Amino acid sequence: MAELVRAPAAFTVPGDVLAGAAAAGRRPDPAVAGLAASSVCLYWAGMALNDWADRDLDAVERPERPIPSGRVAAPVALGTAVALTAAALGLAVVAEGRRALTVAVPLAATVWGYDLWAKSRPAGPVVMAAARGLDVLLGAGPGRLRPALPAAATVAGHTLAVTALSRTEVTGAEPWLPGVTLAATGAVAAATALRARPPRHGSGRRHRLAVAGGLAVYGATAGRAQAHAVADPSPEKVRRAVGIGILGLIPLQAALTAGTGAVRSALPLAAAFPLARALSRRVSPT
Hints:
Elements: H1 14-23, H2 30-53, H3 55-61, H4 66-69, H5 74-96, H6 101-118, H7 124-140, H8 145-166, H9 176-195, H10 204-231, H11 235-247, H12 249-259, H13 263-280
Helix pairs in contact: 1-2, 1-7, 1-8, 1-12, 2-5, 2-6, 5-6, 6-7, 7-8, 8-9, 8-11, 8-12, 9-10, 9-12, 10-11, 10-12, 12-13
């Protein structure tokens, strides 16, 4: 089941909510924690639904995946996706009341729309990017969306580039595609650095170091893997760039969160990154 839901990749999800909450001036209170749990459930739902929707294609291209290999039955995967989606919406309501559904429901609809319709179409990367942007706005909460829009756009931009690259995981890519992805990573890092604002109280030096540290790790992991894919755009290198690109969201989220002055909120994300990297060696995040 951990393979079905891509368990290690879930470490990339709470940071969306934390970045959105920080941008909106929210403290990481129990309500934000509940929204993060909702987001994780919805991400897992999307992964299970992805494998159910792709079961016939995976039987040809990726027979090692849970459904074609026989480790998970197709109805179980679909039932898991439904149950996790319901849990995600329920957790959002528990965390912040029915008003949370104003973002949670469109987010869930976008996840299902991607897996069932958009994934194989030209709009697929845009729809996936929209889902991650909405995930950031989920953390901001109704009535506080505007301050979180830049952070949502930054996460969406990273996601758009990595998702476009992921379409060539099986066949390999033309060198220009990982090149564009690498350029997007640079643009995302620059935008994050430029938008960082010093905290009203506390150490500006600590704030700058936290932002710089997050972006340095982001570049050294996601950017470096993409550079290798530019030099050798084979399926193996592309898959590695995509997998590391997914996990690279964590230091990016840490930099975004620290960039609002919420350095303490960024620390759990920094601590989660090496754990996610370690788990990804056991279970693929893609």
